[in-house]
Amino acid sequence: MKILVVLKQVPDSTTNVKIRPDGEDIERAGVKMVVDPFAEFAIEQAVLLKEKRSDVESVTALVAGPAKAAEALRTALAVGADDGIHIQDDVFDGLDELQVAAALAAVIKEGGYDLVFRGKQEIDLDSGALGPALAEALDWPHVGAVTEFALAEDGKSFVAGRRVEGAEEKVEVPLPALVTCEKGLCEMRYPSLPNLMKAKRKPVKAMTTAEVAGFAELTASVGGSKLHQFAPPPERPPGRILQGEAEETAKELVKLLREEAKAI
Amino acid sequence: MTNDILVFVEQRDDKAHPGALQCVAPAKALAAKAGGKVVACIIGDNMDNVVAAVEQTGVDQIIKISDPALKLYSALRYRTALTAAIEKADPRVVLMATTFMGRDLAPRVAMRAKGAVANDVVELDFTGSNELDVVRPLYNGKASCHVVFPADKLAVATVRPNTFAAPTGSGAASEDLPFAPAAGDDRIDVKECAKTGGDVKDVTEADIIVSGGRALKSEDNFKIIYELAEVLDAAVGASRAACDAGYQPHSRQVGLTGKTVTPKLYIACGISGAIQHLAGMRGSKVIVAVNSDPEAPLFGVADYGIVDDVFKVVPALKEEIIRLNG
Question: What angle do CA B7, B8, B10 make, to 5 degrees?
Fold first, then answer.
């Protein structure tokens, strides 16, 4: 069984987001980039399977993005992935998630993977469209926002648990399949210094979109949405602080929520 | 391609998701601008109540795909069913609520229909050159941006719940579309679907959320949060710190690695308001902060604040609401 983890590199969650003067993106200079927190769960889950199961042949980490995105691969390799694929091309900056999914599907078909892990969402775009779109492009089943994962003895299927609004589901799916990982599934181990050193010797295949079969047609056939006019969030008017004993402030708050805010 | 707007009405157990009915409002505005009509698509099994609820929003047409195989959500069966409705109605735009199901389904359907997708949008309009132009928050609510769809492709968007109010009206014509599964649709087999949280609502489906933080100090003390939530018919949420400390399960966590919520009222009790928490709730309509620390960052986004001990204020709020409810 060959496992693939599709990573994303994102600005650290504590980044002070500034908008570029032309409004077409955020300021990226000097922003600390990290592996997306949801992708961390995906890496760990893949590595856990490899450690437990003799039928897992390899865990490959893939990232599509600029030169700097190679750092995300290093993290995955240090945690236990065997090798990496870096599709490095500036053209990705102008593609939307469906176009990226269409291109990645071609790479995944070529690589013959059986199981693909991805984060539930990415903390930069807050979208999460890539995972399900990738599964559709492959015509694979997917299970989204998984918090439990158990591979069957024979390695031909798995049972995944997930929390949907107000319910817990157990879903059984045959391979090949795609899984998006939610908090609670596992926590990524800390990459140790020796393992970070070892990761430097693990193979990373660098490729461009020219090596993706049918790239131009695939990305023209679907998607094509464009992000523009980035803006800071609307300012909330300053709030009102209520003073006094708890009984009084509680009374006043309930009155305001009823009569002014009309929220209850 | 027609100028029609299709709304996928998410339902479970014959109950329409409120966020899905709210989608009819922007759908009507877009249809009026484009000169098309609003078509609702309902997918499931035994959906009389959902049909009635959708009729009351005043859509022009309802496509109902009812089949025992569609009783529980499956990404494959639902994408096949919704794609069939899209082929039938041939709309310009498909809207659905930003929910677990919406985020799971919209990208698949957009890919299958060779369209484009944007999640969690809060404004929708057509540009002068007839492209769908939406606004969505990103970077954990620290920024927003416009997403412009190509004019020649189907646009699929999930709409943030509680951004619009569900409209009222009448006059829908309903028609049944039989479910024709695609090859391999049975690959997703839902073995079990158990309700969680007992009688307490889930944070993603409540109009009001009462959330507790580390200041509650124990799981037992969360009792006061649950009591206030009960009198408000609210869901209970918690900060990451409270969940990591074991006071509440992670399924109740609001924030960056938890749930993103946009209720009509969010009452944060003893939550300082780390940036990761704000990311999950700053889109709420009205925010209340109760905290003994006047420097708590949550006061920066709150509409109303009480700087006081949660153990005094929260029970007092409960008593006041009980008193008014008689």
Answer: 135
d(CA B203, CA B263): 8
Partners of A230 on chain B (C-beta within 8 Å) are: 143-145
SS3 category, A58: strand
**What does the buried/exposed string (b/e) look like for B245-280 if buried means 16 or more CB atoms within 10 Å of the residue's CB?**
bebbebbbbbbbbbbbbbbbbbbbbbbbbbbbbbbb
- Sign for the pseudo-dihedral over CA of A103, A105, A110, A113: positive
Superfamily of domain A2-221, CATH level 4 = HUPs (3.40.50.620)
Domain boundaries, chain A: 2-221, 234-264
Taking the CA atoms of B242, B244, B247 and B249 in sequence, report the sign of the dihedral they define: positive
B175 in reach of chain A (CB within 8 A): no
Question: Per-residue pLDDT tens for B142-186?
Answer: 899 999 999 999 999 999 999 999 999 998 999 999 999 999 999
**Least CA distance to B318: which residue of chain A?**
A250
Contacts of B150 in chain A (CB under 8 A): 224-225
Does an H or E element contain A210, and which? none
Residue of chain A nearest B76, judged by CA positions? A141
pLDDT in tens, A71-114: 999 999 999 999 999 999 888 889 999 999 999 999 999 999 99
Q: Which of A170, A228, A246 sits opposite B145 (nearest CB)?
A: A228
From the list A124, A228, A237, the residue facing B138 with the nearest CB is A124
Q: Are A247 and B316 in contact (CB under 8 A)?
A: yes
Residue intervals in chain B for CATH 3.40.50.620:
5-187
Size of interface A-B (CB pairs under 8 A): 274
- CATH class, domain B203-325, is alpha beta
- Answer yes or no: are the C-beta atoms of B316 and A250 closer than 8 Å: yes
CATH 3.40.50.1220-classified regions of chain B: 203-325
Domain spanning B5-187, CATH architecture: 3-Layer(aba) Sandwich (3.40)
The candidate with the shortest Cα–Cα distance to B99, out of B206, B248, B238, is B206
Whole-angstrom distance, CA of residue B208 vs CA of residue B284: 9
Residue B144 to residue A26, Cβ atoms within 8 A = no
Yes or no, beta carbons of A261 and B286 under 8 Å apart = yes
Predicted local confidence at residue A165, as pLDDT: 74
**CA of A173: how far to CAs of A256, B7, B184, B229, in Å?**
51, 29, 11, 38
Flag if A231 and B108 touch (Cβ within 8 Å).
Answer: no
Smallest Cβ–Cβ distance between A247 and the set B114, B146, B316 belongs to B316
* Helices assigned H by DSSP within B97-246: 100-112, 223-232, 240-244
Over its C-alpha atoms, chain A yields an Rg (Å, rounded) of: 22
Q: Is the pTM of this model over 0.80?
A: yes
User: What six digits make up the tokens of A29?
Assistant: 């200079």
